[in-house]
Write a structure and sequence with these properties.
single chain, 7-stranded mixed β-sheet, 18 helices, 37% helix
């Protein structure tokens, strides 16, 4: 049995957690695919995969709860050696030489069976997550564009929630957003007297990951990257192709698009994802989907009419812990967020349908509750260690690429062209407007292209059939840059494969990480979930009854999906 410990590097730059090992492996690593059902038939050795999910659950749980913990990082002293202190109940914490905050779950296995660290990155950059990066989250020197928390809330009221500015909210939305982000860019310059920000970059994080791996006595990286984590993984494989032990990237971005601050190519699945809502609602019927209409096109028309109505006449909401307005931008964000996690009971398609139906009847409270909003409370200046989503996202996502020098007119033209590809280009294109205001870039940083003629181990890339944030086309394109790599497709809607549980997908993950086995080219895995589930909610039983172990894996997969949703909803522009 090969088991290792869990290690977490706190920060935002990779937006990740780092897991050390976590595999229980036996002699039989690969289970066959049942050709009749398309599902993975898990052998008695699937306890290894359970361990894999334990590390993700631990990682994502810490990702979503570290900010609320009362552990005092300030009592730790930074050192070139990792000196461990008990923290977070059963974990251990340390600060590296650059005061990079690190958390680990110690292994209980003999040292002879230790297989090394697996770095896991749930995306961003800017998710409330853990990572080896100077200046972010619990690492120091801490970065903040703002002198006080009051200033942050005044200038960036959506910092704690996912609210992307809509460039279609008004006739001057682009120019106003450009001005707002230009101000924030000036604040970034003002806050960077010691010139730390230029060093927060993806290529530096890749170098950190290699050093971390080597510090644990291993020469080759084992890595699982999600969304932005795919950029980090592909960048690492480009810079260090001979240092790849296992490298799996999921929700793969178009790398050229990332390094040019042009997300248009990644939006090509957005319309299809929304159509999946219309089709699923229509097929589910009015009992399961309250926004039902006799045809998918009629549901689309209902949504267009509702959106136009809200744009003309927003609705106020007074909730127990907060209050606000459901306007055009808020409605657009709720719908877009639902496309990311359509299977999730809290924010997915079923909840979206309920919120839209209530909104059509004049009740905005249900829809308002689908995006977590901060409660109204007084906060003092930020502590030395704090979660800084906005700064982290901006510094990396805008500091990595070629500088954006667009004028307001050029940005207007950019998003209108992107709108020909995606119905939600008004939201996604705001990231380019943000980068137009950011002026800190390190000369000589890596800006692409990614690719390597040969990596020491082939890469595994994963893409959903419909992903509103990172279209599967990105995985196919990136795979061509790394000969020998394979793209595994999961037949699901949403952002990354973790959006829905799939025994088939899990089986391929296991085979790759344990012994490097890649799926056959063209492999497509079904999911064990439905967009509009029946009353029983048991999808797997429609093919066959799941074993006790499979049920445990599916339950873990659903919890992972829920935790991923919490990570996603902690991001904001």
């Amino acid at each position: 049995m090969l088991v290792a410990s869990c290690l977490i590097l706190q920060g935002f730059a990779i937006g990740a957690v780092l897991r050390v090992g976590g595999w229980e492996s036996h002699h039989d690593y690969a289970s066959p695919i049942n050709s009749a059902t398309g599902s993975q038939v898990l052998s008695s050795h699937s306890t290894m995969l359970s361990s894999a999910f334990q590390f993700i659950l631990i990682s994502l749980y810490l990702t979503s709860t570290l900010a609320a913990s009362d552990f005092n990082w300030q009592k730790l002293t930074a050192d070139t050696k990792l000196n461990w202190t008990s923290c977070y109940s059963s974990f251990q914490c340390s600060l590296g030489f650059a005061s990079i905050a690190i958390v680990r779950l110690p292994s209980t296995s003999p040292k002879s069976q230790y297989r090394g660290p697996i770095l896991f990155n749930p995306g961003g950059p800017g998710a409330a997550a853990s990572t080896p990066s100077l200046g972010v989250s619990y690492s120091t020197p801490t970065i903040s564009f703002f002198k006080t928390e009051a200033e942050r809330r005044f200038l960036l009221p959506s910092a704690e929630i996912v609210i992307y500015p809509s460039l279609n909210a008004s006739s001057n939305a682009v120019s106003k957003t450009w001005g707002d982000f230009g101000l924030l860019g000036q604040l970034a310059l003002q806050s960077d007297a010691e010139h730390h920000l230029q060093h927060m970059s993806t290529d530096n994080i890749a170098r950190d990951m290699l050093q971390i791996t080597q510090a644990f006595g291993f020469e080759k990286l084992q890595y699982w990257g999600i969304s932005y984590g795919s950029v980090l993984g592909a960048t690492f494989a480009t810079l260090f192709p001979d240092k790849v032990g296992r490298l799996m990237i999921d929700g793969v971005e178009d790398m050229d698009s990332y390094y040019s601050s042009n997300q248009t190519a990644m939006m090509v699945d957005v319309n299809g994802s929304l159509e999946a809502f219309f089709d699923g609602c229509n097929k589910a019927g009015p009992d399961i989907c309250p926004f039902y209409a006799p045809s998918s096109s009629e549901i689309a028309e209902k949504l267009d009419a509702l959106t136009s109505s809200i744009k003309e006449q927003p609705l106020p909401v007074v909730a127990p812990d907060s209050h606000g307005i459901v306007d055009f931008g808020f409605l657009r964000n709720v719908i877009f967020q639902s496309l990311f996690a359509p299977y999730d009971p809290a924010v997915g398609f079923v909840s979206l349908a309920q919120g839209l139906a209530a909104l059509a009847n004049g009740n905005a409270t249900v829809l308002y509750g689908l995006i977590p909003v901060p409660s109204f409370e007084c906060q003092t200046s930020p502590p030395p260690f704090h979660l800084n989503n906005f700064e982290s996202y901006t510094t990396i996502a805008c500091g990595d690429p070629v500088p954006v020098t667009d004028t307001v007119a050029q940005l207007e033209e950019y998003w209108l062209n992107a709108a020909k590809v995606s119905q939600f280009a008004d939201l996604v294109s705001s990231s380019r407007v943000l980068c137009a205001g950011y002026k800190i870039h390190r000369p000589g940083r890596f800006q692409g292209p990614v690719g390597a003629k040969n990596t020491s181990v082939p890469l595994l890339l994963v893409g959903n059939t419909l992903d509103p944030a990172t279209a599967r086309a990105g995985a196919l394109k990136t795979s061509k840059a790394f000969p020998g790599s394979v793209v595994l497709t999961q037949d699901s809607v949403g952002h990354t494969s973790l959006v829905a549980p799939s025994l088939c997908t899990y089986g391929h993950f296991r085979a790759y990480f344990v012994n490097g086995t890649l799926p056959a080219p063209g492999t497509v895995c079904p999911v064990d979930a439905e967009l509009f589930p029946s009353a029983s909610g048991n999808v797997t039983s429609k093919r066959r009854l799941p074993s006790v172990e499979e049920k445990r894996l599916l339950d873990a997969g659903r919890e992972i999906s829920s935790l991923m949703r919490r990570v996603v909803t902690s991001r904001a522009l």
